[in-house]
Amino acid sequence: MAAAPAPPADREALRPLAWACAAFAGGVLLNCDRVPAWTPATALLLIAWRLTTERSGARLPGTVARALLALAVVAVVLWRFHTLNGLAAGTALLMLMSTLKLLETRARRDQLVMVGAGLFLLLAACLDRQSLARLPLYALQAWLCCSALAVVASAGFGARAALQLAGRALLLALPLAVALFLFFPRLPGAFWAIPRGGEALTGLSDSMSPGSIVKLVADYDPAFRVQFAARAPPAEELYWRGPVLHDFDGHTWRRTSGVFHLRQRLQYLGTPYRYRVALEPTRQRWWFALDTPAQSPDTNVLLTYDNQLLGAEPLTEPISFDVLSYTHTRALEPLGAFGRQQDTALPPGANPRSVGLAQTLRQRAGSDADFVQAILDYLRTGGFVYTLTPEALGADAVDDFVFDTRAGFCGHYASAFVTLMRAAHVPARVVTGYLGGEWNPIGGYFVVRQSDAHAWAEVWLEGRGWTRIDPTAVVAPERLRRGVFDLLPDALATRARLLRGSAWLTGLLQRWDAANAWWSDHVVKFDYSAQLDLLGRFGIRSPDVRYLGWAFTLALLGWLAFIAWHIGRSARPAPPDALARAYARLCHKLARIGPPRAPHQGPLSFAATVTTHRPDLKDSVHALLARYAQLRYGPAAPASRAQDIEEFRRAVARLSLSRAVGGRQ
Amino acid sequence: MPTLAPLPALVRARVHDWMRRRQGPDVLPVRLERRRLYILPTGAGVAFGMLLFLMLLAGLNYGNSLALFLTFLLAAFALVAMQQCHRNLLGIAVIAAHAPAVFARTTGAVHLTLANPASLARAQVEAAMPELAAVAADLPAHERQQLELPLPAPARGLVRIERLRLATVHPFGLFRAWTWVHTPIEMMVYPRPHGSLPMPAHSGHKTGARPRGGSDADEWLGLRPFRDGDSPRQVDWKAYAREAPLLVKEYRPAGSELRLFDFTQLTDPDTEARLSQLARWVVEAEAHGERYGVALPGVLLPPDRGPEHRHRCLAALAVFGSDDGAGHGGGTGAPG
To answer: Fewer beta carbons below 10 Å: N end or C end of chain B?
Structure first.
């Protein structure tokens, strides 16, 4: 059957295939931004082609062609991804192989495979991204797949009936799903490691070139959210420390890799800030914390010598952690020789004019601190402009910026400032991270967005240690106060300004952000320890996995009982009404004195039977049965009907029949 | 397609025996109660379960909340589907099942009447006889529906169906609920009316058995069971006194014209051909409104007419030579 060309199918015969294709296509679309565009494009094209073939009844490719195609698909995926393991490669493979399955989809089983692939692709999407915004899409896809199951099971279903049926079943399933979600014991730890997707998400990276940060400015996505245990620091102290960059090649700043220094002992000054950071996945290793974190929040996280929090693994899932930070510190130890050398190195021969300027100013200044002030004064009075659309810079990028264009944003200023410092042999380094954050009054937290990305400098000053200097703040003090959006060029800022302009829109956005935060904290990060916390809230003293098992079983049984009752309810026949009950009683009485009423017998026929059997009862019984027939089948008399039925019931109750008379002759 | 198809025949037979013992024989009308409904996942259901298991592993492996929630939602969905599948049969009443007689080499049908006494509309209820294709029907709320299950009639005789299967995979095809209704259904298959011999002329020729009795004028034709409207004077009261069923002595009115189709008068060596010829004469005679009788070795059906008579004649031809035929005379202990 598979090889023969099918006759052109009618609408109903086409329906299961169309639904199976829709379920599969939904899964493909959910994943289309995670795999190279040719994969979903191929899949969708083949789906469209398959549907047209079915309509026209054209021949499908034979077994050999399909086997060759399958091999080709594996080869292409291997060639593009270099692996079959891993989410992206696995997803692409699943998409393409299922698409090939489509080429032989004739039997119901093949269509079921398509629906299964749609569900699996939904799972892949869930594994990849768990944001609240995508939840409706996931729900729709689950709904679509379940409806497709109904249509594949019986083609007679119209779209509406199938959607209704699946929707109702899913709604009934929801309570159990929630209970299972809460109580199904989550085993901590992975038992099969799969490499996670490689492509980086937007966010800070471990290098900074002149244009890199500005790309983030238009990105309104949250990078992390911060909830302070007590008082929050003032806005000008909200520097969120990220990658610290030491190496400069004249164009790009980079982290130094493979260098390990002991962290200097620090004296912490001022108020300690305890807070909780909920970090979105970055696919990078650093954890952002308020400058300067005093201890590592997690055993897997290293607090490095330059005060970065560096995790062991790239972050692929959202995490939350508690940190303690001080906004002011003092070094208790001198800077080592190696550290000094690392943070005063410049590419030889690059930016000669800047080096000259720095050396001149250093000679005039009495100390390093005076020199820092002199440079800042130079930046303030030299006609420097803060702009997010600077001109392109040449090979000596710092020279071009300091002497020619004099327009740039945080990256340019930090880069130039550190170069000038290092030119005068003052140890300095670039720190990237985020500045500021938007207070969300609904959730009671700060949300720090990608657009808050910032770069500043740190200078080693004898007696004080590493000191934060933000040259951008000198040039554009409003950057600190107002955030970057007010400085954006119109093209980028229209949306942001629009949002800011309306109070209720701002409120709405804050609510949405709070909902996202709640989702991330309570759903996405729900794990074994959260399960135990939940049990504790039910009053269980020392919760462990056994209690989870109990709760799980209890929820399952309770739900099953409810479902059996709820679903079985409509299958029961309607209870007999008063008239039927009275009639049943009459028949029961008559059955004691003669042959019972046969199932097919109506009341009048039964009356005839009774009369032949017991002629003595002719009047009383016949009248009653005739009365019943009239009440049941006669013309309705709504006004007195209830009363008539009651009278009939009484008459039946009064009827007493003696067994003695008659009998078979 | 049957649920137990993958099992070896012996196991299947055992399972059916067990079900039959468990349920006992059914007397229609039968309401499908909980304890007689069976349910198992279909192939699709098993595959769905394996998919869920994989999803659970993936969700646990990544500690991914959303994937786990999806898995749990689909698992709960499958449980709902199971309940819905089960209730799609629950409470249905099997009102009647009978198979009208047909001629050999045609396809007969079992007429199955199902009733849905509940307010829930039932969809895709399949009814099938063992080893035969199923027929599906929807049963709207509070309605009756008659299904015709095709039953091939290759040769004459009595086709006996021991049980009927009602099944459903509605609504999602993940589960199949089914039940067996153990109600014997018999379909009489008449011999195929065939043959080119002319109908025997009107005659009063002799029959093999001719006991004495009866009035002089009338020819005594035999005994037949009592029917409404028979005169009490014709009843064989002596036999009744011997606790035999109520029988009626039948006579051919003197002088009336009739045809008697006699098996022994035919010369064709093939029994089936002779029976076919007799069947054809019966059909034609009935169509012409004539009175006719059939004489078979050991069986005599005195001349009469009407659909009931036609059926009696054709049925006698159908079961001729079989155990049922011998039992027709009463005495070999055929089931009542």
So the answer is: C
